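anyone else get weird line breaks when pasting these?? whatever heres mine. first is seq + tokens for prot A
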Amino acid sequence: MATALILGIARAVGETAPVLLTSGASTYFNSNPTQDPMNSLPLYIYASVTSGSPAMEQRAYAAAAVLLLVVLSLFVLARLVAGGRKTR
């Protein structure tokens, strides 16, 4: 059950459409995510890359690296949780 939950969260983080449908989109920082829409990381990456500014492109690559590390750590955590349940 824990593995399915962790993998589901990792998949939702990596896919833009489900995140946009559930969290909405915003162009400003929102300190209370339960009240107003908040920008998702994949949308931020896309908007930054298409902006044309070199500084924003660097931020987009940094955000992509953060997204990659989050998803990778969730997959590693899922493998560790499920590691004790191997059957032959």
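and prot B, same format (seq, then tokens)
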Amino acid sequence: MKMKRLGRTGLMMTENSFGALPVQRVSTGDGAALLRYAYDQGVNFFDTARFYTDSEEKIGLGLSDVRRDVYIATKSMARDRRGALEQLDVSLRCMKTDYVDLMQLHNAPALPDECDPESAYAALLEAKKIGKCRFIGITTHRRDVALAAAESGLYDTVQFPLNYLSTDEDLALIEACAKNDVGLIAMKGMSGGLISSPRAAYAFFTQYDNVIPIWGVQNKSELDDFLRFAREGVAMNEELREIIKKDRAELAGNFCRGCGYCMPTCPAHIAISDAARMILMLRRAPWQEYTTPAFIAKMKNVNNCTNCGACHAHCPYGLNTPVLLRENYADFLAFCGEKGISIE
């Protein structure tokens, strides 16, 4: 695989790197085996988080004996120095290592005060000083925060949702990171499953030498697609541009990206990341998995929405989430009716 330089870190990452969030959904053995398979196929960068339940344990099981041959990044959701350092220690134990190559602040709503000795940023500096991480970064779903981080000189890397559905405003982050020699890690390369063409998704990133996508995969076949694209030298062409044009037209405007930024704020405990884009998933993915009793229960919970506005206030894309929830629920009911699926 082609290698890409992760900004000022100087680390050379495989163009197809591994986002470990989905491996929490598979068994311990299957997750560890998938991680090891990725390594055996040449993948050298694995991104996880303390928040991703047991994905760190699976990394420890699958990769600890080849630790010096891979780069590992993790993240902390803590917003203070003590909490971030404690979470990092747990991460290190789980992954059976004494350091990570990249420690990141997870889903930051704003840049922490770099002058505050008890801030999460202070934890990054301390972890680096004592050798528990080599480089420091930040992840966010907010464009303004990502741009501020890239221009601040404080972070070695920025992780942000980027894919071929991204707006021109979002894509401006690529140039900002290149200008400041900040490593740019692209999450949500498949827009949480809404993108229809993995080939086009891969080709999109071949246009940018300074962007490293971390594909969230949970089985070998998904990973094999991206590995095959690399072997074939897939690049952007007119056919793929037409696919991208079609997807952008279908998904233009108000659609939920599934970032989850609104989730902790819902007092009605609605699974917003699923419910607010359900009809898109039904049309663009195998619909059977979204009409199970578990998903029906999630969708029925939309009826408990109180229109408190918390989700709307926390949406980095400015979506009117309560309206999206109601629209998707109505479409969901109609779809189930067409398929003869009882929701009772």
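btw re prot B: The chain has a mean pLDDT of 92. The radius of gyration is 20 Å.
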